[in-house]
Write a structure and sequence with these properties.
Elements: H1 2-20, H2 23-26, E1 36-42, E2 50-55, E3 60-68, E4 81-88, H3 91-103, E5 122-129, E6 132-138, H4 144-172, H5 177-190, H6 200-207, H7 214-228
Antiparallel strand pairs: 1-2, 1-5, 2-3, 3-4, 5-6
């Protein structure tokens, strides 16, 4: 009887000790995998000729590209800007990107049309996450969702490169901001520039800078308001 009672006490002590352990010590499961989307673009005829854009479901991400003119308004030497920076897109945009990834089988699909169309650049869309991995590469796709997603990535890239260009103009050629901001307003209207929130920093700086032209401040303020909406 005494031996049985001792065994019972020992068993209870072990259970209590396990309950007292911190949650992280009790759990032996691996952390949940995070989702990542990546767009990779290359075209030797353009500048930058190669760039990558990485996004996470919360809208955070990173963009990297070599020097080049991006979508610039002119052909001045100030076009040669590069970009290597963290970015933040809207939550709605990020949700759409990952929704398309899942709808398109994590990009494990044949997305190249093989039609005789002009070379627009090779676009590779990639996904990795708890559901698996996948990627597809195309110049032009007859799959509308994939083609539209590729176009959206190019438009976001254009916005980021414009932001880098505006930063350079502010430092070295403030008068050149007038033409560049006019161009950016038009690009935002017709969809060539998307997700203005990725350049909110420079727009805020321009909108509040008394040293730049009034038109520049006004246009920056309008674009800033649009980026928040």
């Amino acid at each position: 009887m005494k031996g049985a009672w001792g065994t019972l006490i020992a068993t209870a002590s072990v259970a209590l000790a396990a309950h007292a352990l911190p949650a992280h010590a009790q759990s032996t499961s691996a952390p949940a995998a995070t989702e990542t989307f990546e767009a990779d673009f290359s075209n030797p005829e353009l500048s930058p000729s190669h760039w990558t854009l990485i996004l996470h479901p919360d809208g955070s991400g990173h963009f990297q590209a070599g020097g080049g003119k991006g979508m610039g308004a002119d052909d001045s030497d100030l076009r040669a800007v590069g970009a290597d920076r963290n970015i933040q897109v809207s939550s709605e945009f990020a949700e759409h990107v990952f929704a398309v990834a899942h709808q398109q089988k994590l990009f494990n699909v044949h997305c190249e049309s093989h039609l005789k169309v002009a070379f627009q650049g090779l676009k590779t869309l990639k996904y990795s996450g708890p559901d698996g991995t996948g990627s597809c590469t195309f110049n032009y796709s007859r799959n509308k969702e994939i083609e539209d997603l590729g176009d959206s990535m190019i438009a976001v890239e254009g916005t980021i490169m414009e932001g880098a260009r505006l930063e350079l103009l502010l430092k070295h050629d403030p008068l050149g901001l007038d033409r560049e901001m006019e161009y950016l307003v038009e690009a935002a209207k017709d969809g060539r520039a998307q997700q203005l929130c990725v350049i909110r920093g420079i727009l805020t700086e321009l909108a509040g800078d008394p040293e730049v032209l009034n038109r520049v401040r006004e246009r920056a303020g309008k674009l800033l308001a649009d980026s928040k909406s």
